[in-house]
């Protein structure tokens, strides 16, 4: 036995008593729609409440009554139609239908008639009398959406349910692809093909729903239709993933020798065997008896193998003694001689007391490449960042000379250079002041 968590009985408890906040259900739109269908809920409860055998009897009688072509049915017709039933169960079922407002009894004419609530309930129970298939869930949802659109009774909740089912199918197929199992892939691929056919048949209706929602200005319905289109596109894009996964499974299939039998064939055969343990019956009833063919040849080969000369294993050898390394020279990259020649020229001019000299003697001489290299060295003169460096570059930056280029250009009397900008080298007064404190 289990204790009831609520002090009141289940029949007396309200729907709001099951929530932490009693006002929360009133804000849900789905609950408002369910409250509008209280009669349909009561009819379902009248059919499906009780033991399984009694529920099956009520459903069967209800579907048989709804299939009868007459609009008004007398009790005699009922007794003739359900002559295989005993009187007590039939009377019990008809009484339940009258109490649930599924059948209306006319006492003056002694006839039964089907109520509109029963017709509405028949639409809910339609999947029970249709052919059961693997894709019955998707078929029912697509049929409801397409049919409701044709009748003009489409509700956004129907699109939400269809979109949720497409998302569940996508996750199911994605798990099959990720599993890598060939048989799982082939079963999922078969269902995937059926789902694509169903979606393709309903694609025109889905497109018409989107266009109609856009024309009517129904933003919610248009958004749901577009999301449904995206879910449909995701499902359609999965075809290439299935092909790649099946090709990978085909590459992993192994052929057993030259027989042409693959591991897939073996697995299918094993799956067709009902009792795998029967394959081992009699396998251990007697020990294994080896049969030797050509015993003399085998004996000769064994004797030759034992008597043949084998190489001696290598013995451990000590490490070689240390040896003096040969003498060598460390080659260091040196700067081109042009920098030293230019510094020597600048030092001679400074010792001679020259304050200004033309650029041509300092730059020209030798080939064009040497002259270009000397011209690139001129910006080093007086460079504050390079003055702190050691070596020839720092000595070049600490020279008292500064280059001054002019705006004029003209021909040059040189073997390798024909045209050159004019410029002069001037001794820096600041450098002279630092060297001469007077």
Report, as a whole number of angstroms, the end-to-end distance.
117 Å
User: How many strands appear in the DSSP assignment?
Assistant: 6
Report the β-strand fraction as a percent range: 5-15%
Roughly what percent helix? 40-55%
Radius of gyration: 50 Å
> Describe the biggest sheet?
3 strands, antiparallel
Q: How many domains would you count in the coordinates? A: 3
Word description of this protein:
The chain has helices at residues 29-36, 38-48, 52-67, 75-81, 87-99, 116-124, 136-151, 156-179, 182-216, 219-236, 238-251, 263-272, 295-307, 337-351, 359-363, 368-377, 392-397, 429-435, and strands at residues 72-74, 103-106, 111-114, 356-358, 401-411, 419-427. The protein is mainly α and 438 residues long. The protein has three domains: 15-128, Arc Repressor Mutant, subunit A (Orthogonal Bundle), CATH 1.10.10; 136-251, no CATH class; 337-435, no CATH class. Strands 1-3-2 form a three-stranded antiparallel sheet. β2 and β3 (111-114) form a beta hairpin. The longest helix is centred in the middle third of the chain and has 35 residues, at 182-216. The radius of gyration is 50 Å and the shape is elongated. The model is unreliable at 1-10 and 430-438 (pLDDT under 50).
């Amino acid at each position: 036995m289990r204790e009831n968590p609520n002090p009141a009985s289940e029949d007396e408890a309200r729907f709001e008593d099951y929530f932490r906040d009693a006002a929360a259900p009133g804000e849900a739109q789905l609950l408002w729609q369910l409250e509008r269908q209280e009669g349909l809920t009561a009819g379902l409860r009248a059919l499906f409440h009780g033991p399984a055998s009694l529920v099956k009897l009520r459903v069967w009688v209800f579907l048989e009554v709804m299939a009868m072509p007459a609009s008004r049915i007398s009790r005699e017709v009922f007794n003739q139609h359900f002559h295989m039933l005993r009187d007590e169960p039939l009377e019990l079922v008809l009484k339940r239908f009258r109490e649930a407002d599924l059948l209306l009894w006319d006492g003056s004419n002694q006839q039964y008639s089907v109520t509109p609530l029963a017709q509405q309930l028949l639409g809910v129970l339609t999947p029970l009398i249709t052919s059961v298939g693997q894709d019955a869930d998707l078929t029912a949802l697509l049929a409801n959406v397409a049919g409701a659109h044709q009748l003009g009774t489409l509700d956004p909740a129907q699109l939400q349910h269809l979109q949720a089912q497409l998302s569940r199918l996508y996750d199911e197929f994605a798990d099959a692809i990720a599993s890598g199992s060939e048989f799982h892939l082939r079963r999922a691929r078969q269902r995937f093909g059926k789902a694509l056919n169903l979606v393709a048949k309903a694609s025109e209706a889905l497109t018409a729903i989107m266009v109609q929602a856009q024309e009517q200005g129904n933003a919610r319905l248009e958004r749901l239709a577009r999301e449904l289109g995206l879910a449909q596109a995701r499902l359609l894009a999965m075809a290439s993933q299935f092909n790649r996964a099946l090709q990978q499974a085909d590459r992993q299939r192994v052929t057993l020798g030259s027989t042409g039998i693959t591991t897939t064939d073996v697995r299918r055969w094993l799956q067709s065997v009902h009792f795998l343990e029967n394959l081992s019956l009699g396998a251990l009833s007697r020990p294994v008896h080896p049969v030797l063919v050509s015993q003399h040849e085998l004996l000769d080969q064994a004797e030759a193998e034992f008597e043949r000369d084998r190489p001696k294993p290598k013995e451990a050898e000590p490490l070689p003694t240390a040896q003096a390394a040969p003498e060598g020279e460390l080659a260091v990259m040196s700067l081109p001689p042009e920098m030293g020649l230019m510094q020597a020229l600048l030092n001679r001019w400074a010792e001679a007391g020259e304050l200004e000299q033309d650029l041509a003697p300092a730059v020209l001489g030798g080939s064009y490449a040497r002259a270009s290299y000397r011209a690139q060295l001129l910006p080093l003169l007086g460079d504050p960042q390079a003055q702190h460096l050691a070596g020839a570059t720092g000595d070049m930056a600490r020279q008292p000379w500064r280059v001054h280029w002019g705006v004029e250009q003209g021909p040059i009397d040189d073997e390798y250079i024909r045209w050159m900008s004019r410029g002069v080298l001037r001794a820096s007064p600041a450098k002279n002041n630092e060297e001469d404190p007077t």
